[in-house]
Each structure stands twice: as C-alpha cells, then as structure tokens.
Amino acid sequence: MSMLRYGYVAGPLIGALWTFVMAVVACMVMSFATGEGLRPVLIPSLIFGAWLGFVWLPDGGRARSQRIAWSAGLAIFPALAFLLLQPAIVGAESTSTLTLVLAWIVFAVASAWPLEVMLRSLPFGSATRHEFEDAVIRFFTGFGYVFFTAIVAIPFYVMVMTSLKNQAELLQNPLDFSIDVSQGWGLFRSYQELFADFNFGTYLWTSFYVSVITVFLTLLFSVPGAYAVARLRFRGRKAFSRSILLIYMVPMIVLALPIYIAFSVTGLRNTIVGLVLIYPVTTIPVALYMLQGYFRGLPAEVEEAGLMDGLNRLQVIWKITLPLALPALASVSLYVFMIAWNEFLLAFMLLDDPSIFTLTRGIASLNSSEIPRQHLMAGSVIATVPIMILFLGLERFMTKGLTAGSVKG
To answer: For the purposes of burial, counting CB atoms within 10 Å of the CB of 108, is it exposed (0-12), middle (13-18) or buried (19 or more)?
Structure first.
C-alpha cells in the first residue's frame, strides 16, 4: 500500500485502468452510432494508459524522463491506437477507416483530458495520503459518471433507435443501432401507426387523467393525515407515524389475487373507477410519510398566531400551512403522478377492454409476435418521454420539497 503512494506507481496504474475504460466507451459509442463492430484490446490499452499516466504526473524535476516518455509515446502511439481499436469481425464487413479514426479521436480525448485532471495533484515521487486519496477519488468519481451514464443512456438509446427502424432492417441486423437519416419523416412511421391504428392517443389521455385524479385523491387524504400526525396529539400517534410505510413490506403481487377477486365481485374490474380507487391506496402511505416530515419542520408559532387571530384549525391549514408547504406538495404530486403513470401490474390485472387501457397496459398489448418489435419500442418511448420531460422540468421543485423538511427551523 505504501508503494502505491508513489506517483510514478499510482499514476501509471490509474492511467492504465482509465484508458481501458475509455477504450470500451469509445468502441461502444462508435459501434452504436455506426453499426460497425469495434472492440478494445486489453494489453495495448493498458500499456498506453500507463505511459499516459506517467507523462501527466506534474513534476518539473524530471524534464529528461518526460522528454523520453513523450518521444517514445509519439513513436508508438499510432500503432497502439490501431491495435486498440481494431474492428471486431463477427460475421460482418470490416470496419471502415473513418469509423476507426473517429473512435480513435473519441478515445484520445476521453483519455487524455480526464487523466490530466485526475493526476493534477499527484506528485511524481512520494505522495501524502491526501494527495493519493484525492487522485483515487477523482478516478472513481469519473468511473462512476461513466458507468451510471452508460446504464441509463444505453437502454434508452437502443429503445429510440429500434423504434426508428423498419422490420427489414431489424431482421437484417438486430444489433445495428444506426439509422438512415435519408428516410426523413419516414423514420417516424412506427409512431404514426401507433396513433392511427393502435389507439395510443386514447391511452395517453387515459393515463393522464387517471394520474391527475390519483394525485388529487392522494393529497386530499394525505394532507390532513400528515398534518394530524405532525401537529395533533392523540393516542397511538407515534405508532401510526412509524407504521405508515408497513404496507410496502407486502409485495403487490401478494395482494393481486384478493384485489382481483374483490373487484370482480363488486363489478369494479375492467373500469377506470376501479383504478382510481386502488391507485391512491398505493400512493397515500408514501405521501403521508413525506408530508409529515415537512409539516414537522414548519414553525408551529406561525400556526399558533393564526389561531390567536381567530382562525380555526381548518382555516390555519388552508391559509397558512398549505402555502408554506407548496414545495413539498409539488414534490409529492410529481412523485405520485410518476407512480400512477408508470403503474403496470394493477392495470394489467384489472383492465381487459382496449378502449380504456392505460399507456402501460397498451404497451403490454404490443408485446406480440404479430406486431413488429419497433412498435413496442415506439410505445415505450411515448410512455417514457413525457414523464422524463416533466421530471426534468420540475426536478428543482421536487428536490426542494424532499429536503425542505429535513432541517427543523
């Protein structure tokens, strides 16, 4: 461990690991963008990364060794880069020179600049614990950004690109995620067919108003409930406050059969009313939990002043508490809306009539061998994009609402 604190050891090690990660990233980016196979080669990428990590160490006392490293690196760099990004030939044509050059550029930029930032405070010789840990933390931070961005972006990219293809292209090469932009508006024919032939406009509207009603009913019951738990004193208040989320300890799949039987007996199955009744049952507990923490953080003196001015408890809630709690209400509303919009199990279990399908239930109906795969992907994009736009647009309100009650004052 003590040996790793020397910059000339830690620098090349970090450089080798980082450049191999970037080689994988460059190959993935160009493969997804062009449909041509690229694969990284382990040994050359590690050697190049170790050299790059050695060169970037900020120590002016080793000018001679740095010049030697630069000259050697400049001589072997083109050969290493070519070996690093050689095409993967798995029943496909050879990778074009343009794709290889572009991949090399992506790899070089993504390797050199981040490494310079990571190793900025790491000396060539012995490093303090702080300097060593700073370089390691920078490496893992960069790796975390790359990894989590990849696991989020790649599925969405594949989904979008697949939705823009036709059946012949998918059958010819299912792993080719590039698109032919020369088709123009023809790329969106799957989306046009979904709205024209598969009733997706109705599905969107149904999901929207069911989600809005769910938000309204959830707030209608959770606001007074959370306020009572946070402000009023009654027997069993602490036990109730601690047990609000116990419902989430029971998997919904366990409750599916009793719900199905009860709704079938009462005639609520295959109706929107049934969904509107059951959705708040799943969202009210989490809304209660979120709001009670926020209400506890509000100053009680403001409400007491309102009571002294002649307001009753309901007027205090309506005129004082709720205006102060708008950030929390906005975050809870957004969270509940997303739950109702994305809910699938109950909709799949209770709805059989295509005219009242929610969006998730409509997408499930596309999962058939008789329907082209690109239609399923297009439906998934239609379900994902609105809620993504809504979340990104209101993210600051959600974050503010979730954290506002964390500090009492």
So the answer is: middle
